[in-house]
Amino acid sequence: MGIISEYRRRRIKARPLPREWKRVIDEIPVLTHLTSADREELEGTTKVLVHEKHFEGAGGLSLNQDMKVTIAAQAALLLLHRHTDYYPRLVSIIVYPSQYIAPNMQRDQTGIVTEGPQVRAGESWSRGAVVLAWDEVAVGATGQRPGHNVVIHEFTHQLDAENGEMDGVPLLTADRYPPWVRVMEEEYAHLRAAVDAGQPTVIDPYGATNPAEFFAVVTELFFTDPGTLIDAHPRVYETLADYFRQDPARFVRLPRWVITL
Ligand SMILES: [Zn+2]
């Protein structure tokens, strides 16, 4: 990323936010707790993502601006407070109308990770693309299914791939690798054991598929149901809070009367 793209991005961020974009962002519960400074940063990142990434409707879907903003604003949430590029490996965001049928491909040597054997809500390629089902995006954006948000899930895979491998470990500073690996490996092993034993789990059993899915699934929980994650798996919560530089449980755990005092 050179000086020219930095300059261009500053200009894009300085543009006024279209009123329709504001309305779309206001309606996404996972974004409503942000402070005004965070909200401004999120809006700037959203503008850059909508401008720089190639959004494409597939399977007959005509992708409108509201849909792009819905996706970009939630992807922007994962970049808040962090010194990072804007999903540098990601070129295209491809959106189908609904869950789509595709050949069964697990993660392979080219870095393609697919969600589920046949019917897919989304997928993430380490080289260039995120694929989403719009009906899943829409449900996730309402916040009505705590723990589930396909946009957060697939863009977490993109962050995971930033260091070249989609292996459940994102790009970290050197001092942060050991604690990340220790906590996440242990918690992943616990989840696998619980799923194998048929025990109920707070973390979606899909996270037991592999470490990359574990990272994506706990990140969905972190942002959409943080109080549950911090109560059940505080070490995972703290690891993600440190990585994302955010503390979403702080907002939902405060009883309303404390705020109004
Ligand atoms: Zn996944």
Provide the descriptors you would attach to this structure in a database record.
Collagenase (Catalytic Domain); disordered C terminus; 10% strand; two-stranded antiparallel ribbon; alpha/beta; five-stranded mixed beta sheet; 51% helix; 261 residues; binds zinc ion
Protein model, in words:
The protein is α/β, with parallel strands linked by helices and 261 residues long. The chain is built from twelve helices and seven strands. The chain has helices spanning 3-14, 19-26, 36-52, 65-77, 134-142, 150-160, 177-196, 211-224, 226-232, 234-244, 248-253, 256-260, and strands at 54-57, 92-96, 100-101, 112-114, 119-120, 122-125, 129-133. Helix 4 links the parallel strand 1 (54-57) and strand 2. Helix 2 (19-26) packs across helix 4, helix 4 (65-77) packs across helix 5 and helix 6 packs across helix 8 (211-224). The N and C termini lie far apart (47 Å). Bound molecules: zinc ion.
N- and C-termini, Cα separation: 47 Å
**Low-confidence spans:** 254-261
Individual helix count: 12
Number of domains: 1
Kindly report the spatial arrangement of strands forming the biggest sheet: 1-2-7-6-4
CATH superfamily: Collagenase (Catalytic Domain)
Structural class: alpha/beta
Query: Which ligands does the model contain, each kind named once?
Result: zinc ion
Order of helices and strands: HHHEHEEEEEEHHHHHHHH
